[in-house]
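Narrative progress, year one. The postdoctoral researcher (J.K.) led the effort to move from monomer predictions toward full complexes, under supervision of the PI. The following entry was the first complex the group processed end to end, covering 250 residues in total.
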Amino acid sequence: MDIETVFLFITFCGLTGTFLRRNLLNIITSLAQIALGISALFSHKMAAFGNNNLAIYLILFILLALIFFSYAVALLMIRRRSTLQINELTELRG
Amino acid sequence: MESIAASYTFLLVPVALLAFIGLIVQKPMLNALLLLLQSSFIALYYWLNKEHFSSMAILSLLLFIFCLLIWTATIYLSRTTQVYKPTRSSFSLILGLFLFLLFALAFGQLKGGEVQSSQNYQDFFNENIFAIFVVFFTILSILIAAAALISSKNND
């Protein structure tokens, strides 16, 4: 099996999961999976060219910042609405 | 070098399988665990592809897998039986053990290479990027699992 295909597959699974999931925690996990796939793919590419790993650091930093932000939003949602299901969160509480 | 790299490609098959299972399964805690396993498999692949691979790294990896099993068993017990309920202290104990083993793992990987005095900062990071990967993603998945625990407690 080709290594790049595996990393692309991981990224694809994460992307599909981001669209399909209805729970905020699952969406965060999918984002983490995208980060894992993309950064591993880039590091593999960069190692083949003998280049430095600046692109991985950039991707890791941006995606981890995004994931930590959404994690903070999830914790806030647990405290305020006591649920993380997207269907329930979109409903109005009168 | 190419033949060695080709011989360990089978380690990436479970990674693809775990990613696919994670896509189907809708449990956040299990997803976090699957992500953890994926990153550890990728790290294992890159460690095995290195020319020098110390026994310390193997030992710490085994400890890491053992700790994973304990963690899974704890979560399984807390989910299935009503008798055992993990308190906050027991969860933090497991978390602490986890982090300790992670740093042991990262340390083992750092010591795995031949330490050279002329090694500069950039080279050090480039060689140990996968140890940093594993530490990052494990902490992340623990955080997600903790949030899943809190949310399940609130829902009950």
